[in-house]
Amino acid sequence: MIRYLLLAICLLCSFSSPIPVRADDPDLASRAAKILKKHCYSCHGVKFEVPGFNVLDHAVLVAQPADATPYVTAGKLDASLIWQRIAVDKDMPPQKIDDRISDQDLEVLRRWIVDGAAAAAYTNREFITEEHVLRSIRDDLQEMQPESRSHQRYLSLHAISNNPRYTDADLRLYRAAVVKLLNSVSRRSRIVNPPMVDVPAERSSEGSVFRVDLRDFGWSAADWQLALQGYPFGLSWNDNKLQAFARDIEQLVGSLSFDGIAYVRADWFVTKASRPATYHALLNIPETAGELETRLGVDTKQDFLQDRLNRAGFAGSGVSHQNRLVDRHEGSVASYYYRSYDFDKAFGRGVLYRFPLGPRFDGNPHDQFAFEHAGGEIIWDLPNGLQGYMLVDAEGKRIDKGPIEIVRDMREIAGSPEIVNAVSCIGCHRHGLLDYRDMVSGSQSLTSNDRTKVDALYTRPDRLQEILTSDRNRYLAALKLAIGPYLQIREATDRAITEFPEPISTVAKWYDQDMSLADVAAELGFENADALAPTIQYNQKLKDLGLAPLASDSTIPRRMWDTQQESPSSIFQRTAVALGVGSGMNPN
Fold it and tell me: Nearest Cα to 83, choosing from 67, 100, 106?
C-alpha cells in the first residue's frame, strides 16, 4: 500500500504533452523514459519519496521483488504496478488534479511494457576518452604562469558524461553540484565559478573537466590532500601515451606539490566533501559551538541576557517530533547565526511551554524556567553568502550525525533516516532558511519578570518572517551566482533558481545507487558496455572480485566498488589491474 501511495505522489505536479506514436518506433524506450521523467522523476529520482527508487534506473524499475508487485514486468501490463495505477485504477493523479497523462503518452507506456520494457539510452553525447581528459589538463597547465601551476587541481565528470543513464539535464545538475559544493566549503568571500578546461571559453558551462585553484577557496595543498584520503579511483595507466601525459602533468605542477592524482572524480568529490570529516576539514569547522561562535563574533549568552536575539519555539518540525526552539543571532563576522535546541523528551525541562527561558548556564537569572536540551543544529552565512552547517550535542560538541531518537530525516537525503552533516542539511535547506513561527510565547504561567523576558525574546510572526525572508534572499542571491550559469541555460533560461532540484544532495544520492553494467563500464572507460559483460563472464579474477552479477543484468553495491576493505586498493582499482588498464594509485 505504501508503494502504491508514494508512487501516486509522483504525478501530483505532473504535466503532459502529446507524443505521437508511430507503428514502428525504434525510439520507444527513450520515449517512455521521457514520459516517466516528466511525470515521476521529481519524486522518484530527485526527492526519492520511495527510498532507493529512481524511476530512470532501469534495473530498479524492472526488478522483481518477491514481496511486492514489480514497478514494471516486461510484457505483462497486469503485473506492472506503474500501469495498474495510472491506467487501470486511474487514481494517479487524484481527480482533483487537472493535469493528467495524455492518452497518447499512455499508449507509449503500454507499448513499451508490452514490447519488453527495454532500457533507454538517454544521450548521444560524444564519448570522452582518458586521453582527452589528460591532454586537456596538460594543455591547461602549459598555458598558465609557472608560479600558478602548483595551486591547480582538477575535477572530472567525464565518466558521468559517458554514462547513458544520465541525460544532458542530469549532467548540467552534476556541474551545478560541483560548483555549489566547492563554494559551500570555501573560506573566501566571493562565489567562484571554476573554468572548464576541456571546452572553448564560449562553451564554459558545457565541459567535463573543472580546474580548481586552491587559492580561490582558501585551501592549502595539505587541505586538498586531506580531502582525498581514501580516494578509490586513482590509477597509474599502462598505456604509454597516458603515462606520458601523467608525467607531463606532474612535471608542470611540480613534484613537491603533485599528489600523484592527475584528476579527481567530481561525483566522488561532491559526495565525500559534503560529509564528515572532509566537510569539517575543508570549511575548517571547529570542534565546539563555542569556538565557532567566537570565530563568527557571536555571544549567545550576552544576546540572551540583553534581549538581542530572535527566538521561536514550536512543537515538532520537519526533522523532530519533540519540541524545538530556534534562536537567531547576529555576529560581527556572520550576518546571521541560527542555533536550534532539540529535545529527547517531552516532559520535565524538555517542555518548552513550561520552560521557555533556557538554555541553562551559569548566570542565567531565569534558571527556574530554563529548558534542558539534547543537542541542536547550527546554520550561519558564509562570507560568500552560502551557508555553513554544524551539528552539536547537549554540551555543544561537534557531532557527525544527529541521534536518530532526537532527529530523523524521513526523506533519507543521506541514504538513511540519519541526519548527516552537512549533506542532509544542504538537501533540507535547499533554498536557505525554512519558514517557522513561534508557538510558545503567551502559553506559560510565569512571574511578571519572567513573562517580560519571554515577550522580549520571542519574536512576533510578522517580524520573524521579515528576517527569514531577508536571510533567505541573501542565500538565494549567492546560490544563483554559483549554479545559475550551469542550470539557467538553453530551454531553462527563464526558470527561477528555486525550481531546480538541489544539486549536491541529488548527486550524492545518485552516486550511492547500486551500480549496473553500464555504470561500471563508464567508470572503467569502456565505450560499449556490452563488451564488458562477456569479459566478466569468462574472467575468473573479475568474478572473484564480486562482479559476476553484472554479466547477468544485475547490480553491485556502490560501497563494494569504491571502498578499500581487505586491501589498500578498491575493487575499482583491482578490476583495472585485472583488465590490464593500470594499477591502483593512492594520493601521496
Answer: 106
